[in-house]
Amino acid sequence: MAAYRPRHAEATLRELLAWYPVIAMTGPRQSGKTTLARRFSDKPYVNLEAPDQREYASADPRGFLARFPDGAVLDEVQNVPALFSYLQTVVDEGAQPGSFILTGSQQFGLRDGIAQSLAGRVGLLELLPFSLGEIPAGKSSLDEVLCRGAYPRVVAGGVPADVWLADYVNTYLERDVRRLLNVRNLSSFQRFLRMCAGRSGQLLNLSALAADCGITHNTAREWLSVLEASYVVRLLPPYHRNFGKRLVKTPKLYFLDTGLATWLMAIGNPPALSVSIFRGPLFETLVVTEVLKARLNRRQSANLYFWRDSNGHEIDLLIEAGDTLLPLECKAGETVAADWFPPLERFRQSAALDRSWIVYGGEAGQTRSHCEVIGWRQLPQLADELSRR
């Protein structure tokens, strides 16, 4: 078994354990939720994926919870929706802070159960796969990082990325979708997954996506909602407040792990990625997800957007921090180019902002007038800085 790697969300989890009787930790399957929960709780552990435990908890939720008078870690609790109402009774009878940690890899059941029965009694934490700052610094190239992704079993478990990701898609994603949607034509869903991966970092055109996959618009929308709920993809909304221009109002689609996206696109290795037309969008995907992870680890609202007007002028990422915006551009090139700066500077001036940032595929940083150029290896420090604002 691989040694435990500290997570940036640990400080937030400690706070929640001291404040709430129930902590709910959500995130994609295999992102490290169970490991983190068991690391910070000495309570009994129950995996509700196990058929016998799931049947017991469903048939006799009161008796099931009575086994744990001092609390427990309940894994994949969305599998037993009846537990939430009985947990409310336990909590209201005087459960101590940190009594129960609930984990779930699918937002539908977990958040519905919390909203209906445990509102105000639960501290919520979203845990995504490792951030770059949680992975020991090494000599990996940018293309190797993009192909590998950040799932713990790949990064720390020593399993080759292509082997593990194939099993992940077959074992978890397809099974979860079958359970939620009763998908009969699995090949259509597999095609949909691959098409979504190829659109990471791009505007979402759901009608075109549906047509390319040979499915209806409503089916595409339903499948996409499940991928969102399962933390496979995230939609980044456009920012259109306080601007008088005609702006794009379509969201952008991002995979939450670049390794999964490259595997689905059959980009087999770093040399293939280095010449791929998808390298730029995948680099943008890496930057956006790193900033998102930094904010979620601090239990902050994402407040992440992009900006694009009808003429195609775009800012890749806008972070809303109080009454100001923090604009950030993503450039996969390894050499700083002069034409990167004017669009960002025009936006900065028009929005009356103090600073802007560019993250690029090289390593040496630069400080320009009103703009910081950050090499990709310094992305963890930048994401942390921006999450503090």
Quick gist of this model?
The protein is 44% helix and 17% strand. The protein has 389 residues and is α/β, with parallel strands linked by helices.
Task: Give your account of this protein's structure.
By secondary structure, this protein is of the alpha/beta class. It is built from 17 helices and 14 strands.
Our measurement of the CA-to-CA distance between the termini, rounded to an integer number of angstroms, reads 38 Å
In the predicted model, the low-confidence regions spanning at least 5 consecutive residues are none
Strand line-up of the largest beta sheet: 9-10-11-12-14-13
Number of domains: 2
The counted number of beta strands is 14
Our Rg estimate from Cα atoms comes to: 22 Å
- What is the mean predicted local confidence, pLDDT? 92
Largest beta-sheet details: 6 strands, mixed
Structural class, please?
A: alpha/beta
Instruction: Quickly count the helices.
Output: 17
- Give the % helix: 40-55%
Q: What is the general shape?
A: globular
How large a portion of the residues is in β-strands, by DSSP E? 15-25%
Lay out the secondary structure.
Elements: H1 10-19, E1 22-26, H2 33-39, E2 45-47, H3 51-59, H4 61-66, E3 72-75, H5 83-92, E4 100-104, H6 107-118, E5 122-126, H7 142-148, H8 152-155, H9 161-181, H10 186-198, E6 202-203, H11 206-213, H12 217-229, E7 233-236, E8 252-255, H13 258-264, H14 270-274, H15 279-297, E9 304-308, E10 314-321, E11 324-331, H16 341-350, E12 356-360, E13 366-368, E14 371-375, H17 379-387
Give structural attributes.
five-stranded parallel sheet, Rossmann fold, 389 residues, 17 helices, alpha/beta, single chain
